[in-house]
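JOB MANIFEST
job_type = single_chain_structure
chain_count = 1
residues = 404
[input]
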Amino acid sequence: MKLKALQVKHLKHNGISNKVEPISDGNGLFLLVHPTHSKTWQLRYTFSDKRTNIKVGNYPALTLEDARKHAAIIRTQIANGIDPKEKNKEKTKQLFEPLALEWWQDNKSTWSDEHALKVRKWLLNDIFPHIGKFKIADIDHGHIADIMLGIEKSGRPSAASPTLSVLSRIFGRALVRKYTNINPAQGFPLKDVIKPLAKIQHRSAITEPKQLGQLMRDIECWERGAFSTVQSLRLIPYIFLRPKEIRLLRWEYIDFDSGFIRIPDSEMKKNRDHIVPMAKQVIQQLKDVQIITGYSSFVFPSSRNSELPMSKNVITNSLRKMGYGADVMCGHGFRSTASTLLHEQNWQHEVIETQLAHLTGSMSSRAYNRSMYLSERIKMMTAWADYLDALKGNVNIIAIGKIA
């Protein structure tokens, strides 16, 4: 028997059980009355010889008359060989959030864990609150502007450009799927929407030879801290690696026979394998360190858990305790120190940049020649180690760091 509008309005759950009570309107349309007395429209149907059901809507947002109209549309789809559930899934994908999460899931294996987490945070915190529930076809330049202004307001304007790039890639997928006809993030005038970024403040670094000599002497005398902290601080001036790369250095990367440290692409900032020629000073230090930390896979393990590397920022923190302020020297600054002084000594620019693991040469040469300038780099790293030792032995030093 067909339901009546007034009947639907006054229907209540019997309160005896916790089960949903289905009330038929005929032709597969049911009103489900929940124990909470809320009501939902459901259509039961057969597709490909399988009996199933689909939610039509909630009452009273969807009246009896509206529910019947929606049910009729669904029955027409079924008659035309269209599964309404699959059609609903496709409509859901045309919302921005599910498509963006699908894109992230498909790409995360090609990124570092850190970058994947960063992109997900941009999506969840900066993008979805503005457009996550919108149909992709309804999103325009104004919505993109709102996202960019929101990032600027949060105090992270430098995140605007990479977030815009993420948006552009997601809309690129939407274009291919024919969910939209435009990519509102492509060619977006970001510089006209948010304020210009402040000039980059380069990391502090000592580039005067006598001051560097004093720093080397201070490091040599520094013994306040865990073994890994002290030894990593002594090593970093000699091998041009970033503090994170020093921290995550493993024994398996070190080949004493060949005299090379070979770091896989997964550990490098530019996602490329990197070779570090070891001077005799570096080889001797690492052999001495191996006697103490060889039990761990990490060259510089945590003193609390040998299965983990030493803590972050220990190199820079040690420099602070030695009296070298943030405006004088930081852990990353050893790379700038080496670059500046080696350029002053007329070492070839490309050789220096390659050893710093910066992008040099053509794309094809970078892809196929991981040993670029290797013979020159071996000579340079040997000369640099000898130069540091000579500075360290100089007694005429200008002191800039005071031992705390």
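[summary]
The longest strand covers residues 50-59.
The two ends are 90 Å apart (CA to CA).
exit_status = 0
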